[in-house]
Design goal:
The structure holds two protein chains of two kinds.
Chain A lengths: L10 H4 L2 H21 L3 H6 L1 H11 L7 H33 L7 H16 L2 H12 L3 H24 L5 H8 L4 H36 L6 H10 L3 H29 L1
Helix pairs in contact in A: 4-12, 5-8, 5-10, 5-11, 6-8, 7-8, 8-10, 9-10, 10-11, 10-12, 11-12
Chain B lengths: L1 H7 L1 E11 L5 E11 L3 E6 L5 H8 L7 E6 L2 E2 L5 H9 L1 E4 L11 H6 L8 H6 L4 H13 L15 H14 L4 E5 L7 H18 L2 E5 L3 H7 L2 E6 L2 E7 L5 H7 L7
Parallel strand pairs in B: 3-8, 3-9, 6-7, 7-8
Antiparallel strand pairs in B: 1-2, 1-4, 4-5, 9-10
Helix pairs in contact in B: 6-7, 7-8
Classes of the chains: A mainly alpha, B alpha/beta.
The complex binds adenosine-5'-triphosphate and magnesium ion (MG).
Chain lengths: 264, 258
């Protein structure tokens, strides 16, 4: 035979068995879970006019309130920066130990990863509630919460970056008789630094947003004022807080997006 | 005369060296030979014959399974930690892919050849002596690249990168230079520049050079001696004046000649 035969697709591929199976499974799960939790679309529609009341009030922002919230907004940003920095600083050694291309010891690596997974499963709101209880109302609780939250997230992002680096320079550094730390400093860090900074900024963006919510639990910053205005049904103040937060978040996002584009 | 010198004072000796990889692949099988000081040795053989493995047992980038590798009459198998780093720092190594840190400057790449001679904290802080910075410049001068001192390594062509890698190895002040297919990704002219540089280091500085090559023509042009590997075995070993076409062809046969 001169012309090669085209191999037959297995029937599972031909009839898209797995794609169809997944779709059906997901739809069934969705229906089941909405039944189990009692989520009700009708209730949402019934209460929508209450939402309009709120919106009408909010459409008259009390701009004078702006001077009050400048300081807490500033505090929110500081909390986010401090929390992200602390978290990322701790993430560096852990991510180096969790990277499979740097650490041959599988037991150590899996222990570190298990620890990181555990940290990541802690919800930030839970952490905030705990730390507010421990440290009292204020930004300390917020910073610690954000630090732990960032640590969990950034460590994973970091070690996945480390696992993609070119191993050639490491081999070369090993061959000139470099110590482990020197190898990391000379051959690993230059390859990952830009991506690290990029992920740091990305986490900072998330944390600025998160810290407004955390403040709601008493963890300092603008969230405290958000909660107060909502409790007092002072929706025109709420509107100012939301708008100001939005502007801050947008500015931070813009700056960080720009920096990340320059870096990569 | 030369034969006795070879036997009494080889810089590297392989004694019944075997290497079996974890997955059972035989890397090297009962390798026995000596490399005299100052020799330009070329190792040839088919892909997968064990050339890279052989080279990497000398500076312990690969561990051997049994036998002994002697460098300067000392077995390197038991070296650990500091002793191992001291072995490696006197053996230069260059690679097919150059293995420079692409985002760092040429100067930093060249200086990184010195880190085996500095304590870790000084490496981390980049505290190299003015004398060593000058040496880095001189090393670049030897590979004719002084103009690129402050360029980033990824701005250089392949041939230039390989010469930076040679300059880096020169900083180690090596007794031995290992080169694993140093020219496999270079064009013919750059190939000549790189091979000439290696030859010059061999002749002028007396550095023992061991090069893995795929090209038999280059091997004949530059080597003092050619050894051939096939499936992890040393099947050929001749000084350059004894090398014949027929002999070389035999290395590349899949089965030994009947
Ligand atoms: N890390 C490894 N694990 C298992 N087997 C390996 C490993 N490295 C190399 N080998 C095997 O050992 C044998 C020798 O490999 P080696 O890299 O030394 O060959 P080579 O002569 O350098 O080939 P090439 O010319 O392709 O570079 C090959 O069969 C290869 O598949
Ligand atoms: Mg090879």
């Amino acid at each position: 035979m001169s012309t090669p035969e085209i191999p037959q697709r297995p029937w599972r591929q031909r009839y898209h068995v797995s794609a169809i199976a997944w779709t059906v499974t997901i739809v069934v799960l969705l229906i089941l879970s909405s039944m189990a939790t009692g989520a009700n679309f009708g209730m949402f529609l019934a209460n929508i006019n209450q939402f309009t009341v709120l919106l009408v009030q909010m459409s008259h922002p009390a701009w004078a309130y702006l001077s009050v919230i400048i300081q807490p907004l500033y505090e929110t940003i500081q909390m986010a920066i401090l929390g992200t920095t602390i978290g990322a600083a701790f993430a560096i050694p852990f991510s180096l130990l969790a990277a499979s291309n740097l650490v041959g010891n599988q037991v150590l690596r899996n222990l570190i990863r298990l620890f990181l997974d555990l940290v990541r499963t802690l919800p930030d709101l839970l952490l905030a509630a705990i730390f507010v209880a421990v440290f009292g109302i204020g930004s300390t609780a917020g910073v610690i919460t954000l630090a732990i939250f960032s640590f969990g997230m950034v460590s994973k992002l970091f070690y996945e970056v480390i696992e993609t680096i070119d191993m050639g320079p490491l081999e070369a550094m090993k061959s000139v008789g470099a110590s482990k730390v020197t190898i990391i400093w000379y051959a690993v860090l230059p390859q990952i630094l830009n991506q690290f900074v990029s992920y740091f900024l990305y986490t900072l963006e998330i944390n600025v947003r998160a810290s407004t919510v955390l403040g709601y639990l008493g963890a300092g910053g603008i969230g405290v004022y958000l909660q107060r205005s909502l409790d007092q049904f002072n929706y025109s103040a709420t509107a100012v807080i939301i708008l100001a937060t939005l502007v801050v978040v947008m500015v931070i996002d813009g700056v960080s997006n720009h920096l990340r584009r320059v870096l990569l | 005369m030369q034969a006795t010198a070879t036997q009494t004072n080889p810089i590297i000796s392989f004694k019944h060296v075997n290497k079996i990889y974890d997955n059972g692949t035989v890397g090297l099988k009962d390798i026995n030979f000596d490399i005299p000081r100052g020799q330009f040795l070329v190792v040839v053989g088919l892909s997968g014959a064990g050339k890279s493995t052989l080279l990497r047992t000398i500076n312990r980038m690969h561990e051997i399974t049994s036998g002994e590798v002697l460098v300067d009459n000392e077995s390197v198998s038991d070296y650990k930690g500091k002793a191992l780093r001291h072995l490696r720092r006197q053996i230069g190594m260059i690679f097919q892919n150059f293995n420079l840190v692409k985002r760092a400057t040429v100067e930093k790449n060249v200086l990184s050849g010195l880190v085996g001679y500095y304590p870790t904290w000084r490496c981390v802080l980049g505290l190299f002596t003015p004398h060593d910075r000058k040496r880095a410049f001189q090393a670049l001068d030897r590979v004719s690249l002084t103009k690129k001192l402050f360029s980033r390594a990824d701005e250089l062509s392949g041939g230039q990168q390989q010469r930076v890698a040679i300059a880096r190895a020169l900083m180690q002040d090596p007794k031995i230079m290992l080169a694993d297919e140093p020219i496999a990704s270079l064009d013919p002219r750059t190939t000549k520049a790189v091979m000439d540089t290696l030859k010059r280091l061999n002749r002028e500085d007396g550095i023992t050079v061991i090069v893995n090559l795929h090209s038999v023509e280059l091997a004949r042009e530059y080597a003092d001696r050619i050894v051939g590997l096939r499936s992890g075995e040393l099947v050929y070993d001749e000084p350059i004046d004894q090398v014949t076409e027929a002999g070389l062809n035999q290395i590349y046969q899949t089965k030994p000649e009947a």
